[in-house]
Specification:
heterodimer, A: mainly alpha, Histone, subunit A, two-stranded antiparallel sheet, B: alpha/beta, Amidase signature (AS) enzymes, five-stranded mixed beta sheet, 15 helices, 38% helix, 12% strand
Chain lengths: 101, 482
């Protein structure tokens, strides 16, 4: 089942990416070729096989509940593109219902 | 100071430093000069910092002066792949999206390297976010192979491999998700190991595919490699996948070679698609091992043909999730053209990531999306179990598995760029062992008629890096004699 341009738009939105028409054309052909190759795994019988979601199968390791110094606020903000008063600055998140504030 | 330090092994340089024949500062200056003169052509380093390196070397010389020698490689320069955090230096991941980023902490293994008194000399080039097999997908340009600069270095740790092979630094650190340490090692003709999942702390390694990522060292020979592996290995409470097991003194066990070890030859790794020169070189090694009375066993890994597909489903799925953090808010590149929060995410990411990274995020998002998760991701996770079981069965008959590292020698620039699938298939022999979490390394085993290096791969049982290194040492000695 090959991907369509609509699929590309949908996946791009999920991934927070956008593409030029030229990029989209190349992407559609690349992804379809790769996905076609990946269909090779359809031929294996996986009935009753567990998923290998961990390599180690170890339990979550615990550590003592001791306070340790972490990243300082200054360091945490030092690479941010825009900050103000010790905070990250982003565009307005909540859209107005109407024009009155 | 009349030595050509690039011709010496790291341990030989260290011995000279420890006996005060030379200082770490002099050695560091020497290699900085080498980098200055060679890097414009090879492009192995994204950044290197004289002051940063020399101030470490000065401190190390002082410690050596008061006989505070903390490791057998103390005073020797080492290069770090630029997806690993070194406090105070940039971490670019060879991506525009991290341009200007400066690390504010040290990775777990960087702390160990500093404690051992090695000098961090610079950060090496890679495929963007370690996604690639040729080191052509770097925002900072491709790495050239120092053996033949018309060929790729291999990727994604191409900078680390080329820096060591080109005599710009005696030791380097890379990372390997599906072959990114072993492939460039094979193409550039140096040994490198990807140890077991959990052996080296990944705290401070920028995440690509978390169930697969592992750090791996490069060196000029197996002994140096073993010494460096002992230094960087070990448990770290900040990486909950690292395992608290004893760290062997790897260099001390090398000399037993393949004594008492059975070597499995998997028929699936010698099928069609392997270049004739590679096949001949590896078969030559096998013949010599037979003459050495090494016990060789025919084995089968029937799931081999599914491993590339399984790997690229799982790695891209995990990448799409891990790379969601690049949102233009907390660090990294932010687009100028933003009106909404959606624009901020979307434009920053689309302008900041390169083509291959975007392709993989798209693929990973797709295989995890509603309606396709079962067909791709869940299925791949189940086949991954079968791949691991294949190895477990094979290791009932042998301690090591021997194969080529790559079906080809280093290829031409651009050769596989047009076809991403062809690039993915470069990893055919290297992706299965990370899926199983087991150690694997590449060791040089000859050259093709044009002088391009050929790499041989050894795969071992989980946490049995000793046998892998012993086997590589045996083969390295054999190649010296042949």
């Amino acid at each position: 089942m090959a991907l369509t341009y609509d699929d590309i738009d949908k996946i791009a939105r999920l991934a927070r990416l956008k593409h030029t028409p030229e990029e989209k054309r190349k992407l559609l052909s690349d992804l379809n070729k790769i996905l076609e190759y990946m269909e090779i795994i359809d031929e294996i019988d996986i009935e009753g096989i567990d998923e290998m979601s961990h390599i180690t199968h170890q339990q979550t390791p615990f550590r003592d509940d001791v306070v340790k110094t972490g990243l300082s606020q200054k360091d945490a903000l030092s690479n941010a593109p825009k900050t103000q008063d010790g905070l990250f600055v982003v565009p307005k998140i909540i859209e107005n219902q109407d024009s009155t504030e | 100071m009349d030595s050509d330090f690039e011709k010496l092994k790291a341990r030989e340089i260290a011995a000279k430093i420890h006996s005060r024949v030379i200082s770490s500062v002099e050695v560091t200056k020497y290699f900085l000069d080498r980098i200055e003169s060679l890097n414009p052509e090879i492009n192995a380093f994204i950044s290197f910092d004289h002051e940063f390196a020399l101030s470490q070397a000065k401190r190390i010389d002082n410690r050596i002066g008061s006989n505070d020698i903390t490791s057998p490689l103390m005073g020797v320069p080492v290069a770090i792949k630029d997806n690993i955090q070194v406090s105070g230096l940039p971490t670019t991941c060879a991506s525009r999206i991290l341009s200007g980023y400066k690390a504010v902490f040290d990775a777990g293994l960087v702390e160990k390297i500093k404690r051992a008194g090695l000098v961090i000399i610079g950060k090496t080039n890679l495929d963007e976010f370690a996604m690639g097999s040729s080191n052509e997908y770097s925002y900072y340009g491709p790495v050239k192979n120092p053996i033949d600069n018309t060929k790729v270095s291999g990727g994604s740790s191409g900078g680390s491999a080329a820096a060591v092979a080109g005599g710009m630094v005696p030791l380097a650190i890379g990372s390997d998700t599906g072959g990114s340490v072993r492939l460039p090692a094979a193409f550039c003709g140096v040994p490198a190991i990807r140890p077991s999942y959990g052996r080296i702390s990944r705290y401070g390694l920028v995440a690509f595919a978390s169930s697969l990522d592992q750090i791996g060292p490069f060196a000029l020979d197996v002994t140096d490699l073993a010494m460096l592996l002992s230094i960087v290995s070990g448990y770290d409470y900040r990486d909950s996948t690292s395992i608290n097991v004893p760290i062997p003194d790897y260099a001390s066990i090398l000399k037993s070679g393949l004594n008492g070890l059975r070597v499995g030859i998997p028929k699936e790794y010698f099928g069609d698609g392997i270049e004739q020169t590679v096949r001949l070189a590896v078969n030559d090694v096998i013949r010599h091992l037979k003459n050495d009375n090494v016990e060789l066993v025919d084995i089968s890994l029937p799931t081999t043909k599914y491993s590339v597909a399984v790997y690229y489903v799982i790695a891209n799925a995990e990448a799409s999730s891990n790379l969601a953090r690049y949102d233009g808010v907390r660090y990294g590149y932010r687009s100028d053209s933003i009106e909404s929060l959606f624009d901020l995410y979307c434009n920053s990411r689309s302008e900041g990531f390169g083509q291959e990274v975007k392709r993989r995020i798209m693929l990973g998002t797709y295989v995890l999306s509603a309606g396709y998760y079962d067909a791709y991701y869940r299925r791949a996770m189940k086949v991954r179990t079968l791949i691991r079981d294949d190895f477990n069965r094979a290791f009932e008959k042998c301690e090591l598995i021997l194969s080529p590292t790559s079906p080809s020698v280093a290829f031409d620039f651009g050769e596989r760029l047009v076809d991403p699938l062809k690039m993915y298939l470069s990893d055919i022999y290297t992706v299965a062992s990370p899926l199983a979490g087991i150690p694997a390394m590449s060791v040089p085993c000859g050259k093709d008629p044009s002088g391009l290096p050929i790499g041989l791969q050894l795969i071992g049982k989980r946490f049995d890096e000793e046998s892998v290194l012993q086997g590589a040492y045996h083969i390295e000695r054999m190649m010296d004699v042949v």
